[in-house]
Design a protein that fits this description.
Order of helices and strands of chain A: HHHHHHHH
Radius of gyration of chain B: 19 Å
Distance between the termini of chain A: 47 Å
CATH topology of the largest domain in chain B: Rossmann fold
Helix content of chain B: 40-55%
Largest sheet of chain A: none
Helix content of chain A: 40-55%
Structural class of chain B: alpha/beta
Number of strands of chain B: 8
Order of helices and strands of chain B: EHEHEHHEHHEHEHEHHEHHH
Largest interface: A-B, 38 and 44 residues
Bound molecules: iron/sulfur cluster
Strand order of the largest sheet of chain B: 2-1-3-4
Oligomer: heterodimer
Number of helices of chain B: 13
CATH architecture of the largest domain in chain A: Orthogonal Bundle
């Protein structure tokens, strides 16, 4: 018997918001798991990239409390392998943006050690600030 | 051949040896880099949110400089912008693609940059490796004065030269461009699993542990596959694979350090350019003992 999942309005709105922000047709994801299989940081994540896609697809906003979006390094390994041509890195960016646009920063610039500031190349700092601060 | 050149922030500081060795090796091949006047930081990472047009301003401003250089005669009908840093390459090129795909965005950008000349979408962003390929690897062979015959090298492509596919300079899964370069330099490129595995990128700021774990996997994979050293084209990969060996060594005392060089340093060595141009004192793990033991220095 096929089962029907009915999403409430809040969930539908959340899916729409992330779909619009990411530009990805998230409903195309068939949960094949290819993205999770090749992700270099999957073992550090609390949910896998494919679980992240699934949670967004069903409008489950608790995805916002997971670590995964902050650990996606935008390496695009999943992007070139997804059989549905989806880009998880764009969905992760959309989720990060939902938080960052409320002026909530993931990295606190004034807490970065002097040692890190002196040894890290500029591209590391600028990239991290762009991805992890508002 | 004269080509507009975008250095980016890191090539003027921690990766100065990358820039110097690239400029001088290119000169030996008859390629002159003409640095953009008044360039600005490209933002390092491409904005991925659909509505984020603002962060394309920084890349596009640099593209306008290329048009100006063509007008002023600084370069002659050369609308390609050459990059060395893989991250700058990726970010600048992705902005050119965004404008091609979404023409309306270009109007928004031009309206915003009302003090600038309008950008017309005609600049192409290229990486130095692509110019070397176009120039012909045989031309490189002709310049080799010091044989690197005994050197086994792991070409590390990382992410930003290859992915996503529409910006990649080579096959995303089975790239060969670095291998071709190394072969033309008389070195031996090794085949290995981790050549296009991510080094952890900017996670190096707030997740050193993850980055050093990824680095350990990449470096030991290179070693197990027979490499004496690793080459890269990205100052962030270089930091994560070279400087982070400090943390890796603390965690894995049995780990033996392996030098990580920019591909252009290797060109400078093979072309027998000045020691200053090679800039071997700029690398964290000193490559000199290895190169001496192989009779190269
Ligand atoms: S690879 Fe694509 S289709 Fe498969 S689970 Fe990941 S996002 Fe979904
Ligand atoms: S882009 Fe993000 S989710 Fe995809 S493989 Fe890379 S780190 Fe994992």
């Amino acid at each position: 018997m096929p089962k029907t999942i009915v999403l409430d309005k809040k969930s539908v709105d959340f899916l729409k918001k992330i779909t619009d922000l990411s530009g990805e047709t998230i409903t195309l994801c068939d949960q094949c798991g290819t993205c999770s299989g090749g992700c270099p940081v999957v073992e550090d994540m609390d949910i896998t990239p494919s679980q992240l896609m699934r949670m967004v697809l069903i409008g489950d906003q608790t995805v916002m409390q997971t670590k995964t979006m902050w650990l996606c390094a935008t390496c695009n390994t999943c992007t070139v392998r997804c059989p549905r041509m989806l880009d998880v890195s764009k969905v992760a960016e959309a989720l990060r943006q939902v938080t960052l646009r409320q002026s909530i920063n993931k990295v606190k610039i004034d807490e970065i050690s002097k040692e890190d500031l002196s040894e890290l190349p500029q591209i590391a700092l600028v990239a991290a600030f762009r991805k992890l601060t508002s | 051949m004269k080509i507009p050149y975008y250095p980016g922030c890191t090539l003027k500081s921690t990766a100065k040896h990358f820039e110097n060795s690239a400029i001088e090796s290119a000169k030996a091949l008859g390629i002159e880099f003409v640095e953009l006047p008044k360039w600005n930081c490209c933002g390092v990472v491409t904005p991925l949110a659909e509505d984020d047009i603002m962060h394309h301003v920084a890349p596009v401003r640099n593209l306008i400089r290329v048009l100006e250089m063509n007008k002023s005669g600084a370069v002659n009908d050369e609308k390609r912008l050459l990059t060395l840093c893989s991250m700058c390459f990726n970010t600048l090129k992705r902005s050119t693609l965004r404008i091609k795909e979404k023409v309306d965005d270009l109007d928004v950008l031009n309206d915003f940059m009302y003090k600038e000349e309008d950008y017309d979408g005609s600049v192409e962003v290229v990486h130095f490796l692509e110019i070397l390929r176009e120039n012909g690897f045989d031309e490189i062979k002709k310049q080799v004065k010091k044989s690197l015959e005994n050197l086994k090298i792991a070409p590390y492509y990382g992410c930003m030269l290859l992915r996503p596919k529409d910006i990649g300079i080579d096959d995303a899964e089975r790239p060969t461009i670095f291998n071709d370069l190394l072969t033309s330099l008389s070195a031996e490129p090794i085949e290995w699993r981790a050549k296009n595995k991510c080094c952890g990128s900017f996670l190096t700021l707030d997740n050193k542990e993850i980055v050093s774990r990824l680095g350990y996997d990449i470096l030991t994979n290179a070693q197990k596959s027979g490499a004496d050293l690793i080459v890269t084209s990205c100052p962030l990969c270089a930091f994560n694979l070279d400087n982070r060996q400090k943390i890796i060594k603390q965690k894995h005392p049995e780990f033996e350090e392996i030098p990580v060089l920019y591909f252009t340093q290797l060109m400078a060595i093979a072309f027998d350019l000045d020691k200053e141009v090679m800039g071997l004192d700029g690398n964290y793990i000193n490559p000199v003992p290895l190169l001496e033991s192989k009779g190269i220095l």
